[in-house]
Amino acid sequence: MSLNRKRKKELRKLQDQANSLWESQQVLVSEAANVAREAGRQLGHFGREQVVPGVKDGYGSYVAPYLDKGVQFSKQVLSDKVVPTAGAVVGSALSVWDAANDTRSRLASGRGFALPDAATYAKKADKYGKQATKQLASRLSVLEPAKKSIGAGGVIAIILGVVAAVGVAYAAWQTLRADDELWVADDPLRAPDE
Q1: Which residues contact 92 (CB under 8 A, 6 or more apart)?
Q2: Is Transmembrane tagged as a keyword (predicted)?
Q3: Residue 93: CB partners within 8 Å, gap ≥ 6?
């Protein structure tokens, strides 16, 4: 297919216009890149000189005091509430374990269910509790003034204590429940009804 001269001339003119436009676009894009680069550099300077010091001052005056109070409160709760509660729970659990083992051995040997001396087990529980509390307190020793009212840490410690007591009671029940064949039935065995 051949083009006449007029069309060829128009196409050359159109191509020249497109090349001219492309060159001007290249210059424009180059200038835009230079402007963007300079804006990024100025923004970096502004951030280092104005924003960062303002953020540091704001953090130091508004956020840091509350974080320090939170850390101090956490240390206080840990040393005043959690450590003694954990020691008491461990001591109680160990004394219940000893009592359950003693009871089990008494039942297995045929000596009955009565405990020989309940005061002995109370002393053991106190002893285990004090030892565990001392050990935990020595590892996590933090000296802070005592808080006058119960807070969130106290509530959490009470909940943990109740959960631990329920767990100890459940463990004792499971221990005693496992010895069903040692219990003496009140009624003599009779033939099942048909």
Answers
A1: 125, 128, 129, 164, 165, 168
A2: yes
A3: 164, 167, 168, 171
- Tokens 């101090």 correspond to 72
- Please provide the size of the chain in residues: 194
What digits encode the pLDDT tens for the residues 132-151?
777 777 766 655 555 566 77
* Spatial separation of the C-alpha atoms in residues 128 and 82, rounded to whole Å: 16
Given a cut of 50, the residues of the chain with pLDDT beneath it are: none
User: How many domains, in total, are found in the chain?
Assistant: 2
| Residue 1 structure tokens | 């297919």
78 shares its domain with 158: yes
Q: Are residues 79 and 122 in the same domain?
A: yes
The answer to whether position 122 is within a domain reads yes
| CA atoms of 138 and 95, how far apart (whole Å) | 22
What is the pLDDT, as a whole number, of residue 16? 92
| Chain center to CA of 173 | 31
Q: 174 is in which domain, residue-wise?
A: 69-179
Tell me the DSSP string of 110-162. T--S--S-HHHHHHHHHHHHHHHHHHHHHHT----PPPSS--HHHHHHHHHHH
Residue 13: predicted pLDDT: 93
